[in-house]
Amino acid sequence: DIQMTQSPPSLSASVGDSVTITCRAAQDIDNFLNWYQQTPGKAPKCLVFSGSTLENGVPSRFSGRGSGTDFTLTISSLQPEDFATYYCQQSFSIPYTFGQGTTLDIK
Amino acid sequence: QVHLVESGGGVVQPGTSRRLSCAVSGFTFRNYGMNWVRQGPGQGLEWVAGISHNGSVVGYAASVKGRFIISRDNSNNALYLQMTSLKSEDTAVYFCARDRMVAARHWFDPWGQGTLVTVSS
Predict the structure, then answer these.
(1) CB A33 within 8 A of CB A25
(2) pLDDT tens per residue, range B70-110
(3) Which residue of B has its CA nearest to A50?
(4) Kind and range of the H or E run holding B54
(5) CA distance B82 to B88
(6) Distance between CA atoms of B61 and A90, rounded to whole angstroms?
(7) How far off is chain A from B96, nearest CA to CA, in Å?
(8) What burial letters (b/e) apply to A6-24, b meaning 16+ CB within 10 Å?
(9) For residue A95, is the peptide bond before it cis, meaning its omega torsion is within 30 degrees of 0?
(10) Mutating which of A54, A91, A97, A98 best tests the B interface, going by the most B Cβ atoms within 10 A?
């Protein structure tokens, strides 16, 4: 199984700030990397697939970068609805493993 | 509008079985692979199983292999997860999710709202 490691586990920020979440794969996964957002009690929602492609309807303040083993999700100009938990996921090989999540809360 | 609705959750005793269902609408079900993902209480996401569009290819997480079976009924737009020999560590919200793919890159979108399975005596 490919282990995915996210950092930091939690993050505090204010509306208007820019934040970056990091995800590291235990082996080269090319750009087989997705990012999901989950708010409490809700289903996850895909924000970014294939490392850097925004899913339809996702605001442009979200951006994904990276290839190989190191990936980032950056949210610029945080909005109130962005405070949530974010997960990375590799789809390079089954099982499609997730990172442990990064919880973004309001400072 | 694409819609996925899970059902079948509840409280079950260890060692017993349960079948989850996912009813889908708003898209051509037979054209898409599907997945089950679970989330334990206060925990992260764990991919459980996946199935190809026609059911010919399936895959499982090691934690459920040999105990869970994923299947689908393309005539009735339904996805299933048959769970047997349930353990306390199977307690989780179970989500179904549509598999999207471009150039062999898979991602899950959308997801259902989930159904809670609690394994407890």
Answers:
(1) yes
(2) 999 999 999 999 999 999 999 999 999 999 999 999 999 99
(3) B105
(4) none
(5) 16
(6) 14
(7) 10
(8) beeeebebeeeeebebbbb
(9) yes
(10) A91
Mean per-residue pLDDT for A16-24?
Answer: 98
What is the band of A42 on the pLDDT scale with cuts at 50, 70, 90? Answer: very high
DSSP A98: B
The token pair that represents A30 in the structure block:
């090319």
pLDDT value at residue B7: 98
Decide if A12 contacts A30 (C-beta within 8 A). no
Enumerate the residues of chain A whose CB falls inside 8 A of the CB of residue B100: 46, 49
pLDDT of residue B98: 98
Angle at A68 between CA A67 and CA A74, to 5 degrees: 40
Q: How far apart are CA A104 and CA A13, in angstroms?
A: 7
Residue holding tokens 């939690």? A10
